[in-house]
From TrEMBL:
<dbReference type="InterPro" id="IPR036097">
    <property type="entry name" value="HisK_dim/P_sf"/>
</dbReference>
<keyword id="KW-0812">Transmembrane</keyword>
<keyword id="KW-0808">Transferase</keyword>
<dbReference type="GO" id="GO:0016036">
    <property type="term" value="P:cellular response to phosphate starvation"/>
</dbReference>
<keyword id="KW-0418">Kinase</keyword>
<dbReference type="InterPro" id="IPR036890">
    <property type="entry name" value="HATPase_C_sf"/>
</dbReference>
<keyword id="KW-1133">Transmembrane helix</keyword>
<feature type="transmembrane region" description="Helical">
    <location>
        <begin position="102"/>
        <end position="122"/>
    </location>
</feature>
<feature type="domain" description="Histidine kinase">
    <location>
        <begin position="187"/>
        <end position="404"/>
    </location>
</feature>
<dbReference type="GO" id="GO:0005524">
    <property type="term" value="F:ATP binding"/>
</dbReference>
<dbReference type="GO" id="GO:0005886">
    <property type="term" value="C:plasma membrane"/>
</dbReference>
<dbReference type="GO" id="GO:0004721">
    <property type="term" value="F:phosphoprotein phosphatase activity"/>
</dbReference>
<feature type="transmembrane region" description="Helical">
    <location>
        <begin position="128"/>
        <end position="147"/>
    </location>
</feature>
<keyword id="KW-0472">Membrane</keyword>
<dbReference type="InterPro" id="IPR056374">
    <property type="entry name" value="DesK/YvfT_N"/>
</dbReference>
<dbReference type="Pfam" id="PF02518">
    <property type="entry name" value="HATPase_c"/>
</dbReference>
<dbReference type="Pfam" id="PF23540">
    <property type="entry name" value="DesK_N"/>
</dbReference>
Length: 404
């Protein structure tokens, strides 16, 4: 059996029922009318209730419906009893849904017509009854403005609260960025100072003639060369990071087959995987997946993750590489069952100069690889993050790229 439709939408709560219940009072008075006026009056009340219900279900015709409610209220007041003006309280709260111009017109018209009725009723012999008629005049002519102004005030408060929260978030983000810049400069200073100190020390020893043994000289020269390469790599990486960090920098997107591109990247690292006896589990669709991307930059982003996977995991680790296509985005996953990453640094892993643990501080890396990866993915309007508790393996890097 089909369930009966509710009288009013659920989101409206119980208030429409409470206001409608007040119609019992005019119904009671209407039942005391003589037969010739009873049935027309009951018909008007029935129409009133039907229109009242429809206001909640047909918002497109709300102006028409409220006009009908006002007309029925005034008809009952003029031809039956002026006290029927009190019916206006049943639907006055709905008038706040009208635009201001319609609110002015309807409330103004109601005020004029109700005042004319009151004047005819109480003047000149029943002036004492004016107190009885002031509430419905207020309810139909002034109360909707008060309620609408109150709602507007509440909306303004919500807007101000939302703006305040946004300013607070932006302020916190600014402080975080400033702190990140300070930390990056400190880390950069440290990472440059360490190899430069080594270069200065060994070069001074050679320059002053403290090293006589030829084999030791060659070893010192190799130290100097290796440290200079590290400084050069660090400066190059820092340049790339700074360029990508600039919001005005552009990337060269071209439509290519992302599946074939990903296969080529994996093939280039196959020998390195083979040297560490790593097992590859690859899930890349056989059909073409055409996507617009910067081939050079995306290659670098994925390479940084693959190099970390090879460098920081033990031999015989299983590496999972997959490409999944959904309705709105592409997902590239690079995971493994190796050493894993501490959960407490997962949120900062893509910040500059952050490494997986302290033992990696002197591993020859620049600490900018994953930060560059994040910037590249963001340039593609994508998202990159690490899952430290994936369904399979111990670590899973996830890159999401939007299709639109």
């Amino acid at each position: 059996m089909n369930k009966l439709n509710p009288l009013f939408p659920k989101e409206e709560g119980i208030f429409p029922y409470i206001y409608l219940a007040n119609m019992c009072i005019p119904l009671f008075f209407m039942l005391s009318e003589p037969t010739e006026t009873l049935y027309p009056g009951l018909l008007l009340l029935f129409i009133f209730v039907i229109v009242y219900r429809q206001i909640f279900w047909s918002s497109r015709f709300i102006i028409l419906f409220i006009v009908i409610e006002l007309v029925i209220t005034l008809i009952l007041s003029y031809f039956y009893n002026p006290l029927y003006l009190y019916i206006v309280f049943v639907f006055s709260f709905l008038m706040v849904r009208l635009q201001w111009k319609w609110l002015y017109w309807l409330c103004g018209s109601y005020a004029v017509l109700s005042l004319i009725l009151i004047y005819k009723t109480i003047f000149p012999d029943n002036l004492v009854l004016i107190v009885s008629f002031l509430p419905p005049v207020f309810g139909g002519a002034i109360l909707p403005f008060v309620m609408k102004a109150s709602l507007r005030y509440k909306e303004l408060n919500e807007d101000l609260r939302r703006v305040a929260e946004e300013l607070k978030v932006k302020s916190e983000e600014k402080e975080r960025l400033e702190e990140s810049k300070k930390r990056m400069l400190a880390d950069l200073s440290h990472d440059l100072k360490t190899p430069m100190t080594t270069i200065q020390g060994y070069s001074k020893a050679l320059y002053d003639g403290f090293v006589q043994d030829e084999e030791q000289k060659q070893r010192y020269l190799k130290y100097i060369y290796d440290k200079s390469i590290r400084v050069t790599d660090l400066i190059d990486e820092l340049f790339v990071f700074s360029k990508l960090d600039n919001p005005d920098s552009q990337i060269n997107k071209q439509e290519k087959d992302l599946c074939e591109f990903l296969r080529q990247v994996v093939v280039e690292y196959y020998e390195q995987f083979d040297e560490k006896e790593m097992e590859l589990s690859i899930e890349i669709p056989s059909e073409r997946v055409v996507f617009s991307f910067d081939q050079k930059l995306l290659y670098r982003a994925i390479s940084n993750i693959l190099e970390n996977t090879i460098k920081y995991n033990p031999e015989q680790t299983t590496v999972y590489i997959s490409l999944k296509v959904s309705k709105n985005h592409l997902t590239i996953e690079i995971g493994d069952n190796g050493s894993g990453i501490h959960e407490d640094i997962a949120d900062t892993l893509f910040d500059p100069f952050v490494r997986g643990d302290k033992s990696r501080m002197n591993d020859g890396g620049t600490g900018l690889g994953l930060a560059i990866t994040k910037k590249i993915i963001e340039k593609h309007n994508g998202l990159v993050y690490v899952d430290t508790k994936p369904l399979r393996g111990s670590t899973n890097f996830i890159i999401e790229l939007p299709l639109t």
